[in-house]
Amino acid sequence: MTGPSFTTPALQEILCLHARSPITLGGARTSDMPTDVPDDVVPPNARKTLPFPIVPVLFLTGIFYLNFTARVIFSPLLPLLERELALTHGEAGSLFLLIQLGYCAGLLGSGFVSWRLNHRRTILLSSLTPGVLLLILSRSTTLAGMRAGLLLFGAAAGLYLPSGIATLTAEVPREHWGKALAIHELAPNLGYISAPLLAEALLRLLPWRGVLTVPAALTILMGICFLVLGRGVGHRSELPSFATVIQIVRDPSVWVLASLFSVGVGSTLGVYSMMPLFLVNEIRMERELANTIVGLSRIPGIVVIFFSGLLVDRVGYRMALAVFLAITGTLTLLLGVVHGRVATAVLVFLQSTSAGWFFPAAFSMISTIFPPRFRNLAVSLVTVAGSLLGAGVIPSAIGYLAELSSFSAGFIALGALTLATLPLLLSGRASTGVGDMSSRAGNRER
């Protein structure tokens, strides 16, 4: 998933089920995972002595971090890309749509790749290929070449996550899955913070093309290290079940959840992608200051993630999502209404922080609505749709609105759209069809 990744107890449960279920994101199967051993077979003392494999966890986290950072590094470089390639705001925003189109294709096709290869080779492919493509992109001089390269780059990067999760849960004992997933899911959050700060630091020494070569080289180097030192899972996955996909997409709840994920991802990654252009072109900030604010504004969100999990446990996912939609929608709207160097900087911090509330509640909602046999595929379909629309279509739409009017108009429209989903959530329509689906699943199981 391009996109955004957060760790909460609910998300950890889904990811663990994802690793063991016959149907998983991208087609990974239980044949690739360690099976649980009953407690009466393994003595309690023996279970407690299993060490936490910190090295493979950090190895995979490093690969995930570079995979994500390489995708979001274009955001702080957009003002320079616009000027050198003579791009309009809409064309600049559409670059993220191309990355997400490729990423979603890679995510959905990862099951076929790991079926043909295996999880270890798929991880290697998802590390080496994006690095090579990023090097090629750094030399591109035409918009057509940049677009084609970004599409392929996104597809190569999208191969990692399913095989990465499969490998992580295979390398780590079951009792350590929570800690391992928490460490692994820090990667995208650190990527949000470090990408603009790293870009700005490198721009003092290199042109923007040279900046792209640094994460490209690091990604290739990490892939080589994984080839030489990493173990990984050598099993192949099995082909995804299309019958189950059809059964899932027929349920109206999937489309309601996809709508919520679209505005959720749009308010986080979508806003993040276009924020440097907004701060430079409309608020008249220096590029260095704009990138610093965008990077630092993501730090409080890491803390909020953990507190949001407590909020979900206390008030339930529906109320927690309503709070998120109300606050984040209002703050996104205010970004387009209230202008000023200090006022806008404060709003950027508040909006980024509030956006972190969404994913714990949203994943909790999925785990509650869908029975276990459908849950993992539902996560796949909902997050792919949300990522494509929220991280691809929304930044592109903000860019084209900036051409017609202003970036402020794009933020106002996104804020209004976010608030408009409140009646859908509070009316209870997010549960449409779920009871019937769960009932049917329960009857089949009985």
Compact summary:
Helices cover 78% and strands 0% of the residues. With 446 residues, the chain is mostly helical.
Describe this protein's structure.
It is built from 22 helices and no strands. The chain has 446 residues and is an all-alpha fold. It has a single domain, classed as Growth Hormone, Chain: A (Up-down Bundle), CATH 1.20.1250. The two termini are 34 Å apart. 54% of the residues are buried.
- Largest beta-sheet characterization: none
What multimeric state do the chains show? Answer: single chain
Distance between the termini: 34 Å
Gross geometry: globular
Q: What is the tally of beta strands? A: 0
Per-chain topology:
Blueprint: H1 9-20, H2 44-48, H3 54-72, H4 74-85, H5 89-116, H6 119-137, H7 143-157, H8 160-171, H9 177-184, H10 186-203, H11 208-229, H12 242-249, H13 252-281, H14 287-296, H15 299-315, H16 317-337, H17 341-355, H18 358-369, H19 372-404, H20 407-420, H21 422-426, H22 434-445
